[in-house]
Automatic annotation (TrEMBL):
This is Nucleoside diphosphate kinase. It is found in: Cytoplasm. Major role in the synthesis of nucleoside triphosphates other than ATP. The ATP gamma phosphate is transferred to the NDP beta phosphate via a ping-pong mechanism, using a phosphorylated active-site intermediate. Belongs to the NDK family. It comes from Marinomonas sargassi. Its cofactor is Mg(2+). Its EC number is 2.7.4.6. The gene is ndk.
Length: 134
């Protein structure tokens, strides 16, 4: 089915000047980029986005990292977009990410892992509304 998913190009990837390369991968994979903005997250916006991780030990460093520089937030549309985007990204931990995935190529650690993508249709709807409204 035609789906939408939320993509975030994280501060490490923005700082590395690979926004264009990542967008090229999205476009080559057949995604349409239907919404996009570059923003500087603050503690409230990043903390709210990752509210489900609030009790996890990495929460504080996650919010610090995500507010350390601008991010590019996009909505990608395509057939089976949620799973397809997760496959393009590779595993959360780049050490476990398959060759040729975004995280294998651009991430350095599980904390600085270059990109975020919605993990289900339900979180995609919630995350898209969080950044772009209903
Ligand atoms: P992301 O998909 O943006 O969602 C939460 C982020 O927390 C994740 O990517 C990682 O960058 C970061 N993180 C750090 N440690 C962990 C961990 N042990 N498990 C999951 N995510 C982690």
């Amino acid at each position: 089915a035609l789906e939408r998913t939320l993509s975030i190009i994280k501060p490490d990837a923005v700082a590395k000047n690979v926004i264009g390369e990542i967008y090229t991968r999205f476009e080559r994979a057949g995604f349409k980029i239907v919404e996009a903005k570059m923003i500087q997250l603050d503690d409230e916006l990043a903390g709210g986005f990752y509210a489900e991780h609030k009790e996890r030990p990495f929460y504080k460093s996650l919010v610090e990292f995500m507010t350390s520089g601008p991010v590019v937030v996009s909505v990608l549309e395509g057939e089976g977009a949620v799973l397809k985007h997760r496959e393009l990204m590779g595993a959360t931990n780049p050490a476990e990410a398959a060759t040729g995935t975004l995280r294998a190529d651009y991430a350095v650690s599980i904390d600085n892992n270059a990109v975020h993508g919605s993990d289900s249709l339900e979180s995609a709807a919630r995350e898209i509304a969080y950044f772009f409204g209903e």
